[in-house]
Design a protein that fits this description.
The chain contains 15 helices and eight strands. Strands 1, 2, 3, 4, 5, 6, 7 and 8 form an eight-stranded mixed sheet that branches. It is elongated.
Amino acid sequence: MDGAHLNVSHYVDVVKEQLVSAWAVAKPTALAASDAALTAATGAADFLEPMNAKVMVAQAQLHDYVVRLSAVPAVQGVLESISEVGLVQDVAHATLGQRKLAPESLLWVLLLVIGFALLTFLIVPKAKLAVWGFFYFFLARDKKPCKPTDMKIDKNSPNCKRMKIVFIRHGESQWNSVFNKGWKIFLPVRLVRALIKEASMVFQRDSLFYDSPLNAQGLQQGWDLLAFLASQPPGCREPGTCHKPVEQLQVEDIVSIIMGDAGESVVASSILRRAISTVLLALSPRLLKSTFAKDRVHLMTSLQEISRNVDTLSITRSRTTPKVPVDEARMKNMGDLMSHWYKTRLDSRQNSGNKTLGMKADKRQRQFVKWVFEQRDVDCIIVGGHSLWFREFFKSFMPKSSVHTAKTAKMVNCGVVAFDLYRTVQHGTEVIRIPPESIKEIYGGFEGKAKKKKG
């Protein structure tokens, strides 16, 4: 046992000697590092000390400014009036323990609220859109289309231009699922579910209400339209057929033009995602046969829906393209392709951002018509858009005396309607005209019953 004890003691002594030797080697380096750390800490403290002093000076100056501002008679009067409001007194009592705040204290609270709101705008992408949507709903006068006339046009006049137009209405949207489908008694339930999902997307560039995307039914309607277009027999078999006006064409001729198999056409869409997705889905065979340089979807603010509801406001910034909606990116057998189209086939040059209070329907209609007749070497414009915008366009540019269904009924979801659009100048006045006889229902058409006008 004594031998074992000696061996252990000897081992401990050896370890001690090794530790001492190691420390002797490492000590200079460790002390140098310690001195460097101390020097750095001292330097940081010396650097921060004047900054702390500046912060304290700034706080004192701000406090002095707030005190002086709250003492200005006009400001003081406003603050006292606000402090007399019952709701303000209740909130003050619940949070600060006193019902009436001094003008200086109330001004501090207001500044903090404003600062928090500005910080929210920076952190939450859709906060600014939410505020704009609130004001737009109450201040907008969007339903002001161009006034129709009965002025005759000379189609054979040298300065009269014609363009074939194809309207494609978007499929059903998430907004429709909440507010326009099902029994009204269950609306609160649908609304709560939608609000919960909306809250989960607060930090994303996505929404159910703003720029409402297609719902499941809307996507199926897009598939059905694609199947219809792909199933039509070849058209425009005779040379020059594609250059004829709509009223002289058959359905298969117009479908061949829509699918890019005949003539020269351009595709445009509203900047709202439900219109974009409908066009990309239904015209996928056309896009697969071409490139971005040859075929792209022009996003146009002028085609934005006519309404004050928030679902008509875009979440996409000016001169940018939207992201594919989450549900569409996950779509079976098509999600990757839709994501690819959103990334590669959208042209944002005509996207000037959301419609403004001054950009009423008549101005947007004129912008679109101007763009249409600026296109060169094109004989057809294919437009993805919205029911109210389409109906108001028909009302504005068909003869005032016309009683055509297009002036009173909406197009069905994913409906397709073609027509001829003429532009001329007569006696110094620009005339835009849609001949009623040129309107041709290609798919779906108009809703069966137009809503009766209120007496």
